[in-house]
From TrEMBL:
Name the record gives this protein: Glutamine--fructose-6-phosphate aminotransferase [isomerizing]
Shown stretch of the complete protein: 244 to 600 of 600
One GO MF term attached to the UniProt entry: glutamine-fructose-6-phosphate transaminase (isomerizing) activity
A single cellular component GO annotation: cytosol
Substrates-to-products reaction catalysed: D-fructose 6-phosphate + L-glutamine = D-glucosamine 6-phosphate + L-glutamate
Positions annotated as active site in the UniProt record: K352 (for fru-6p isomerization activity)
Coiled coil: 189-216
Gene from which the chain derives: glmS
Protein location: Cytoplasm
Subunit structure as annotated in this protein's UniProt entry: Homodimer.
The enzyme's E.C. designation: 2.6.1.16
Ranges for domain SIS: 40-179, 209-347
């Protein structure tokens, strides 16, 4: 039930800190240590390459997951859009493991890949919010998201839950491979939950920014480098699906290869600058678009911030910044849709679960 909330989407955005805390609880043993199903641990450890297959927001979570699995656990990962993969399968490695990410567990495009993968005799793990769903039943293993029912068509808490569970999977795999890590993932996730809360408490500020940048525009660009690029793609998807503003997420460095031609006076650009190793270069892109008239809204962290940034995120482990940087993007999309009188929870032409290919 929505309770006192005007929309499910806003309620689900606000639930994110609780979902993260619930995930911590579900994935820890009696001593507070991370625990994962032994069979899943072996399946991931034995794989020479992971193929993540998903659609929409779940695909965007997969892109972040690749960073975790490669960076933390040294497992090569490919991330594929399900509807493309099924007709255009790459040459597979010797011992692949397929990881399906799906909030609903019912997405037909992903299921078509799962059916094909099983026919070829490969192993599959499904990460889903619905344990008894088709993708969960038909895969060899399931990891649950424990996010509670997600009703709004625009996925919010499932995305952050997927990223949190992928981080847990990566850390468990690293440990299984004997890689020593200098951070405690559950503690870091607890810090994330608090940071998310600090952001959901800043609704007035974010609503003001949405009004300023997005109430009349026809388009909006999200730019970022490294993992910020992936979060920008998710921010753009959120904005387009519920506010009908044409929005795209771009890698900062790609702008000069074409997209910058679209920047004119007053074009809103949301720039994510949360990664210290690329801060200098993304700041360069911010200057380039601003010089061509863009209205730039920079989102940074305590470490990367510069004067004039509109939203400064509380500090969390650098790997986990997508979990907090996406929150203002979700809220910006929500308020943009609200101010443009759009049906926030049930946008036109879309269904919550896409059960046709
Ligand atoms: O249930 P799934 O995670 O498999 O759904 C995949 C996409 O249809 C879904 O994420 C869609 O992109 C959302 N409406 C985005 O907010």
């Amino acid at each position: 039930e929505k309770g006192t909330y005007p929309h499910y989407m806003l309620k689900e955005i606000d639930e994110q800190p609780f979902v993260i805390r619930n995930i911590i609880k579900q994935y820890q043993d009696a001593n507070g240590q991370l625990k994962l199903d032994q069979n899943i641990r072996s399946a991931v450890k034995e794989a020479d390459r992971i193929y993540i297959v998903a659609c929409g927001t779940s695909y965007h979570a997969g892109l972040v997951g690749k960073q975790f699995l490669e960076g933390i656990a040294s497992v090569p990962v490919e991330v594929h859009i399900a509807s493309e993969f099924v007709y255009n399968m790459p040459l597979l490695s010797q011992k692949p493991l397929f990881v399906f990410i799906s909030q609903s567990g019912e997405t037909a495009d992903s299921r078509a890949v799962l059916v094909e993968v099983k026919r070829l005799g490969h192993k599959a793990l499904t990460i889903t919010n619905v344990p008894g769903s088709t993708l969960s039943r038909e895969a060899d293993h399931t990891l649950n998201l424990y996010a509670g029912p997600e009703i709004a068509v625009a996925s919010t808490k499932a995305y952050t839950a997927q990223i949190a569970v992928l981080a847990i999977l990566a850390v468990d795999t690293a440990r299984a491979k004997g890689i020593t890590l200098d951070f405690d993932p559950l503690q870091e996730l607890a810090i994330v939950a608090n940071a998310m809360e600090a952001l959901t408490d800043q609704k007035e500020n974010i609503e003001r920014i949405a009004r300023e940048y997005l109430s009349v525009t026809r388009n909006c660009f999200f730019i970022g480098r490294a993992v910020d690029f992936y979060v920008g793609m998710e921010g753009a998807l959120k904005l387009k699906e519920i506010s009908y503003i044409q929005a795209e997420g771009f890698a900062g460095g790609e702008l000069k290869h074409g997209t910058i031609a679209l920047i004119e006076d007053g074009t809103p650009v949301i720039a994510l600058a949360t990664q210290s190793h690329v801060n200098l270069s993304i700041r360069g892109n911010v200057k380039e678009v601003a010089a061509r008239g863009a209205d730039v809204c920079v989102i940074s962290t305590e470490v990367t911030k510069e004067e004039g940034d509109r939203i400064v995120l509380p500090e969390v482990h650098e790997y986990l910044t997508p979990l907090v940087s996406v929150v203002p993007l979700q809220l910006l999309a929500y308020y943009a849709a609200l101010h443009r009188d759009c049906d926030v929870d049930k946008p036109r032409n879309l269904a919550k679960s896409v059960t046709v290919e």
